[in-house]
Design brief:
Elements (H helix, E strand, L loop, with lengths): L10 E7 L7 H12 L3 E7 L5 H10 L4 E4 L13 E2 L1 H6 L4 E5 L2 E5 L2 H10 L9 E5 L3 H12 L4 E5 L3 H14 L4 E5 L3 H8 L4 E4 L25 E4 L8 H8 L3 E3 L2 H16 L5 H12 L1
Parallel strand pairs: 1-2, 1-3, 4-6, 7-8, 7-10, 8-9, 10-11, 11-12
Antiparallel strand pairs: 3-5, 5-6
Helix pairs in contact: 4-5, 4-9, 9-10
Length: 289
């Protein structure tokens, strides 16, 4: 896709992680560069944990415009940056780095990218209640952004108590007006909390990989027609959770919009241009089909 236009002036943007072979980021960013006629190229690099610092320093030495960071290094990379944004501080994780005249500035666009996908469904954080399944890294980015943008109530369901309590504590310290609670996963409690919720959000891996065909919600009475059900998984495009929710009359949303949203925000940080989101969406939908 990029070999015919690489020149001595081409600017480099990269992805660091392990693994990276499954990432769609090189495809969507290079497609966006071509759309705008920008002389950039995006490449993915698998990096071992003990080589991450050298990889970051190498990209800085090469004057790369920036890079994305994916699992499992979103927290570890913080130690090698010069500055981080407020969102990155709240999430304690970075997924996007911009090289500003030799200073590496870390951003977290995951949460904002998720809210962009909600906004396309005419859902905003401010004044609304959200039920979130899971308390891992993806959940933290989403929960902190919901609180930052004015959600009145967030209810976390998670199997691991320490992770959920840590996330609760962070929200309470930074956003005291946001009411946040935690429960262990139990269908009757989830059903109760979803009765007046705007959206139910699955941030766990149940529904993909070895868990494909499974749903974290096993009682369809949890669903009601006023509830939007979101699964941040994008492959498969319609998880078992979303199938059950749709059959129960819910509005559903998968993780494709979040992937595009966080990528668009990173693209703007690096290039100053808007990502052609509809073009990227059409490309990814066609690819998944």
């Amino acid at each position: 896709m990029t070999s015919n236009r690489i020149t001595g002036k081409t600017k480099l943007i990269a992805l660091l992680g392990n693994p990276v072979c499954q990432s769609v980021s090189p495809e969507i960013h290079n497609l966006a560069f071509e759309f705008h006629g920008l002389n950039y190229t995006y490449m993915a690099f698998r990096v071992e944990k003990d080589q991450l610092e050298k990889a970051v320093e190498g990209l800085k030495s090469l004057d790369a415009t920036g890079f994305n960071v994916t699992m499992p290094y979103k927290e570890l990379v913080l130690s090698y940056l010069d500055e981080i944004t407020e969102e990155a501080r709240l999430c304690n994780a970075v997924n996007t780095v911009f090289n500003k005249n030799g200073k590496l500035i870390g951003h977290n666009t995951d949460g904002k990218g998720f809210l962009l996908s909600l906004e396309k469904q005419h859902i905003i954080a401010e004044g609304n209640k959200f039920v979130v399944l899971g308390a891992g890294g993806a959940s933290r980015s989403i929960v902190m952004q919901l609180a930052l943008e004015g959600a009145t109530e967030i209810v976390i369901f998670n199997r691991s108590k320490p992770a959920a309590l840590n996330l609760m504590r962070c929200v309470k310290e930074n956003f005291p007006k946001c009411h946040i609670t935690y429960f262990e996963i139990e269908m009757d409690l989830i059903k109760l909390q979803c009765q007046d919720a705007t959206a139910l959000i699955n941030t766990t891996s149940i529904g993909m990989g070895e868990y494909i065909g499974q749903s974290i919600i096993t009682d369809i009475d949890v669903f009601h027609s006023d509830l939007t059900v979101v699964d941040i998984i994008y492959a498969p495009a319609k998880t078992k959770l979303l199938q059950l929710a749709e059959a129960s009359g819910c509005n559903i949303l998968n993780g494709l919009g979040m992937i595009i949203g966080q990528g668009a925000l990173a693209f703007k940080i690096w290039t100053g241009h808007e990502m052609p989101m509809q073009l990227i969406n059409d490309y990814l939908v066609k690819k998944s089909n």
